[in-house]
Amino acid sequence: MLAGIWAEPRPPRPPVRVWRDWALSSGLVAISLVELLVRDDRAWAPLLIGVSVVVAACLLWRRTSPLVAVAVAFGTVLAFDIARIAVIDATGLLGIAGLLVLPYSLLRWGAGREAALGLGIVLIWVPVTLAVDPTSPAERVAGYGFFLFSAALGAAVRYRTSSHDREIEQVRLRQRNELARELHDTVGHRVSAIAVQAQAGRALSAADPERALATLVTIEEEASRTLQEMRALVGVLRDGTDADLAPRRGVADIERLARPGGEVLGVRVQVSGDVEAVDPAISTALYLIAAEAVTNATRHASGATQVTVAVAASRGQVRLRVHDDGAARPAGSAPDGFGLRGMAERASLLGGTLRAGPDPDGGWSVDVSLPRTARAS
Q1: pLDDT tens, residue by residue, 40-67
Q2: Shortest CA distance to 196 belongs to which of 327, 326, 309, 294?
Q3: How far apart are the C-alpha atoms of 17 and 22, rounded to whole Å?
Q4: 241 Cβ partners below 8 Å, 6+ apart?
Q5: Which CATH class is domain 250-377?
Q6: In degrees to the nearest 10, what's the CA dihedral of 108, 114, 117, 122?
Q7: Angle at 308 between CA 306 and CA 313, to 5 degrees
Q8: What is the pLDDT of residues 288-343, one digit of tens each?
Q9: For residue 46, is the peptide bond before it cis, meaning its omega torsion is within 30 degrees of 0?
Q10: What is the pLDDT of residues 82-101, one digit of tens each?
Q11: In whole numbers, what is the pLDDT of the chain averaged over residues?
């Protein structure tokens, strides 16, 4: 823990000096001048004013160079107090009360090692200045307490700000992950379907021009829907709204994934149970997972001729199974990418489970179990 504190970096973007900083420093110097004018003893006036000016000037660099500010200010006052003990007979000015601000700034804006070194300087100075003037035990405790409280307040504000920044970063990361998942599951699936249809059209172009033309019409329709979904995503990003991405598909749309075999891998869809009563969020997730699993099978299932998509809704759960009859693959040979990760994240966020891997009967299966109603987040 101590090593972590020592290695703590400075907080980013310390505030620049503003008019309030100049007003504070000028006010402290003005207080010292007024106090000196009303005193009877002015023998060491230049020295006292010099110390006050140094302390006030250090406050201007308390955020950008906190350790330097602490070292110069407390070092100057320490030398002054030692001189009071050994050489001169003078009392300090109220203007040096600005020292109380420096431990706060040190813990708020300094690096870990700067905070440790700066506090060491402060703790060396406190007993010296308390020894200059006779004080009671309660006054000594109060002297330490003032500066330690200032440092603790700076550390507390720093911790709170850091926690708030981490929360904001986590929200941003979650939003990026959600956007990446939407792009992959919607637009990515559409583009994959277009690529598959284009391959089929190229294979049919010489032998069956009419079917090739029908394939081009399908490609045009898929491209139009892809453009609509991309515009919906961009609209949400530009407007900053929390609207549902349209168009939203559901369990009923899984039947659209069905296609006969031939040049392209055949897909058979089976839907059973009361799927219309499934929560819309669950329904959309099932469609997106099914579409992604079919796309993965089309891309990666070696030797497959058929993909079976089965959806069964029971009283409390909805189960989805996507199985291809391709060559068996080891569990660790799943294709790299974001497909399986996105499917698993989507299922987990809705309180469900997903298992993807080789099927004991051959081929590859994706099994998903989701509650009929999405859990509250």
Answers
A1: 777 788 888 899 999 999 999 999 999 9
A2: 294
A3: 8
A4: none
A5: alpha beta
A6: -30
A7: 175
A8: 888 888 888 877 777 788 899 999 988 888 999 999 888 766 555 554 455 677 78
A9: no
A10: 988 888 777 777 778 889 99
A11: 81
- Nearest in space to 358 (alpha carbons), one of 309, 302, 311: 302
What is the C-alpha separation between 227 and 229, in angstroms, rounded? 5
- The CATH 3.30.565.10 domain(s) of the chain lie at 250-377
In this predicted model, which residue has the larger pLDDT, 31 or 328?
31
Please report how the helices 339-349 and 137-182 are oriented relative to each other, as an axis angle in degrees rounded to 10: 120
Residue by residue, DSSP assigns 105-150 as: HHHHHS-HHHHHHHHHHHHHHHHHHHHHS---HHHHHHHHHHHHHH
- Say what the pTM is: 0.54
Q: Which amino acid is at 114?
A: E
**Cβ–Cβ < 8 Å for 219, 201:** yes
